[in-house]
Amino acid sequence: MAKLYFRYGAMNSGKSTAVLQVAHNYEERGMKVLIMKPAVDTKGDNKIDTRIGVTREVDVLLKPSERVHSFLTDKIDCIITDEAQFFTPEQIDELFEIAVNEDIPVICYGIRTDFQRNMFLGSKRLFELAHSLEELKTICRCGKKAIFNGRKVNSKFVFEGSQVAIDGTDEVTYESLCGKCYLNESS
């Protein structure tokens, strides 16, 4: 039986690079992968961009109103998603059903919580349903394990605002932080 996997980590833990590596491994063996990401993730448009400079166009930019099943037209050996935290709970349910009922492995990559330490709805549903949970680790500036994503607007940490801020007029960046450094910045 195929499984639903959720591989999560703070920003800069190598999730997008892992997406491309896993896709390459399947394709190197002559298998067909379907790579998707939520359309709400406008960073990189229809591409997966990695910090190391490797990019790849996705097969599907899934809108919140769209069903995953509508894109399963060919034989698919694996579905791989990036930025899974932005999928709706219903889309996560559908990915689970595809893994179980259609015996297609589904590997989701994403972050657990937003810059205010609140869980994303897609991530929450993945924690509830995934057969396998795997944390991808990265480090804070102090050298400890980073578990939070601090948001910076124009180089200053902010702790209020909408959950999703990818594009806009201000320069929005994120920094992976351990619990102590996050609390120090927020006080």
What would you note in describing this structure?
The chain is globular, with a radius of gyration of 16 Å. The strands form three sheets. A six-stranded parallel sheet has the order 5-2-6-7-1-8, with helices on both faces. The chain has a three-stranded antiparallel sheet with strand order 10-9-11. It has a two-stranded antiparallel ribbon with strand order 3-4. 24% of the residues lie in helices and 26% in strands. It has helices at 15-28, 89-102, 121-129, 179-186; strands at residues 4-8, 33-38, 47-49, 55-57, 60-62, 78-81, 106-110, 132-135, 148-153, 156-158, 172-177. With 187 residues, it is of the alpha/beta class.
- Our estimate of the beta-strand percent is 25-35%
Outline: globular
What is the gyration radius calculated from CA atoms?
16 Å
Q: Helix fraction?
A: 10-25%
**N→C terminal distance:** 48 Å
Q: Report the order of strands and helices.
A: EHEEEEEHEHEEEEH
The beta-strand count equals 11
Strand order in space, largest sheet: 5-2-6-7-1-8
Low-confidence stretches at least 5 residues in length (pLDDT < 50)? Answer: none
**What's the main sheet like?**
6 strands, parallel
Mean pLDDT: 94
Continuous helix count: 4
**Helix-strand category:** alpha/beta
Secondary-structure blueprint:
Blueprint: E1 4-8, H1 15-28, E2 33-38, E3 47-49, E4 55-57, E5 60-62, E6 78-81, H2 89-102, E7 106-110, H3 121-129, E8 132-135, E9 148-153, E10 156-158, E11 172-177, H4 179-186
Parallel strand pairs: 1-7, 1-8, 2-5, 2-6, 6-7
Antiparallel strand pairs: 3-4, 9-10, 9-11
Helix pairs in contact: 2-3
